[in-house]
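Continued from yesterday's entry.
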Amino acid sequence: MQLNWILKKFEELSAAELYSVMQLRNEVFVVEQNCVYQDADDKDQASLHFCGWDNAKLVAYTRIIPPGISYPEASIGRVVTSPAYRKTGAGRQLMQESISHTFDQFNCTVIKIGAQLYLKIFYQSLGFIQSSEEYLEDGIPHIEMILHK
């Protein structure tokens, strides 16, 4: 599958692109995971937005967060793949590209993430290591993980 990958600053996103981002995040994080939480957390404006498009449909997305916003380290968050595109490799490609962009954009050597616990093995396969005990975030078990360049 060939997706069109685009990296943009918040202010570069069109209204339609931002709507697609919020729609995909809500589809998975609120509806599918049955989790009521405040998605609009004021981190989007400072972040980079990495989007995977299949024609006009957003199917994969991450928010790439500068150091000092979520953690002292740079971070990748709101990692989401459309349910219809799972098991296609889109999620792995999304994270591989996001990692590369994070290291390049912020000239950093460490990335820290807050990962849903059930995705621990996936993130370990990308080189992340667990760096915290399990904790609950919005009722979902999470762990912090780090990746060194």
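--- second protein ---
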Amino acid sequence: MKLTLLISIALFTVQVSAKTLSTAEVTKKFTSIVRAKNKANTTQSPIPNLYQIISGGEVFYASKDGKYIFSGGLYSFDHELENKSDLALRKYNVKQLDKNDDLITFKAVNEKYVVYVFTDPTCGFCRKLHYSLAEYNRRGITVKYIPWPRGGEYLNSGLKNPTFDKFRNALCSRNKKKMVNNLFYKGTAQKKVNCSADNLRNYIQVGKDIGVNVTPIIIDANGHFMPGFKEPDELLQILKSNS
């Protein structure tokens, strides 16, 4: 059962005189009431009097007095409608990957922006993006790869996806960047090695959770979703406008 079925309200008023709970207190109350198996992350929301809670692939908003909570899409109501809940979820997920894993990073010397790219070397536009890495870096854009073999671990035929195994071998290597380069330029990685594929499975699941269904997908540090290849100057302009 989704957590969204537990509580659903449309509008509420926060009492000015009510006690303001800390993010830690709201997290504790949330996990206690809903008995969430997943970790809950509570931060300030885009709305001053609300906290944002991310748990189990969903986004919730709670009053700072801890009395009310609701779920659903939170949209900006400025010059355009932008789903802030989706942005928050994508930002949280890629940051968690970046925090917990050693992502394959092509770092700009004069770093101005960081983007995360879900990629697959069998994808033509992914290869085009890979061949443009030096140009992104020259424009101050650091690129962090999230390996995402299209088709997942197993193909529809039931056979193991060869790209999955190639990525797994690359990620198990002492020099991940070199092995990933080999995948894009030569189509091969090192010979099969014995190591866990859990990180790669996690990448695949995170991609599914935030709506990745094709490659490449570029996500900036604020959670903006950009499908397809972007020319270096084009990407730079998009990042400037999103910052």
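Helices lie at 23-34, 84-100, 124-131, 133-138, 162-171, 176-185, 198-209, 232-242. The domain at 92-242 is CATH 3.40.30.10 (Glutaredoxin). Will compare against the first tomorrow.
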